[in-house]
Design brief:
This protein has 283 residues and is mainly beta. It has two helices and 23 strands.
């Protein structure tokens, strides 16, 4: 399948015959799944933020079954960029499912262009963050693997080297207008409302999204969203209050929840301070 401006979803259930495989192009990464009689193999060619592949690539296509010569070339390859995992079972069965999931750590998103929120103002940014790919056995409801569609770099986010948390770092366009958002099926959209109730401008040079506390929703046109997040910065507080609004965002008319949060938060409310997590906003 050739790349188009309207890619088709890569997720869903497929049937793979014994000694055959399939190939998935998901954003900048490529994934192969191969079925033998007593083991499954998952081969992944990731892409990184600093790699040659475009992290914003719109690829989303599936080839099942993959021709024998193409699958053999992948299994026999000795590329350093390929990661192969084998999973042994008593007997393989034919159906596997690929499902999207959000990151397993908070994501520090750095907008392409810095933005400041003036005192007593609020702005909504639409941020996109890379998804993880879950490969699951349908009949036994067991997970084979979970790999990122984009290998983000690690970053420490906190007030000091001892006071903070390990996160992922990525770039994002940080759009202000929903109608200017491109359709990328390997990334999830989050409406982020930032309220500045202080007397000084608030620089949005990078923000920390609580990805493990968010659900994933899909719309009828196959767009992937999270709940809306509100960050409020007050003069009397040393940081920001982060509130997750329950349910799909108001920007979509219809949406179905695909994944629950990895780490449910109590009453959808998280309070972060500069001393605990570092600046939620700023360099």
């Amino acid at each position: 399948m050739t790349e188009s401006s309207e890619p088709t979803p890569w997720w869903g259930t497929v049937s793979i015959e014994e000694y055959t495989g399939g190939e998935w192009h998901i954003g900048p990464s490529t994934l192969w799944v191969y079925r033998a009689s007593r083991d499954w193999r998952v081969v992944h060619r990731p892409s990184t933020d600093s790699g040659t592949a475009d992290p914003m690539a719109q690829r989303s296509d599936v080839t099942v079954p993959l021709p024998d010569d193409a699958m053999a070339a992948v299994l026999d390859a000795e590329e350093e960029t390929l990661t192969t995992r084998r999973y042994s079972v008593r007997r393989t069965r034919g159906s596997v499912a690929l499902r999207p999931a959000l990151a397993d750590r908070p994501v520090v998103a750095r907008p392409e262009h810095s933005l400041s929120v003036l005192p007593d103002e609020a702005v909504t940014l639409y941020l996109s963050t890379p998804l993880w790919i879950r490969i699951e056995l349908v009949e036994s409801d067991r997970r084979l693997a979970e790999v990122p569609s984009l290998q983000m770099s690690d970053t420490w986010f906190g007030a000091s080297t001892r006071d903070g948390t390990l996160c992922y770092a990525t770039r994002t366009a940080g759009r202000l207008h929903l109608d200017r958002l491109p359709r990328r099926l390997h990334r999830a959209l989050t409406p982020l409302k930032v309220r500045n109730t202080t007397a000084e401008p608030l620089a949005l040079e990078r923000v920390q999204l609580p990805a493990p506390h968010l659900s994933l929703y899909v719309t009828p046109d196959d767009a992937l969203w999270t709940e809306a997040v509100t960050m409020t910065h007050r003069q009397t507080e040393a940081g920001a209050t982060v509130q997750i609004k329950e349910g799909p965002p108001a920007d979509v008319d219809e949406a179905e929840r695909m994944q629950t949060p990895r780490e449910p938060s109590k009453q959808g409310l998280i309070t972060s301070t500069f001393s605990a997590f570092g600046a939620l906003f700023g360099p």
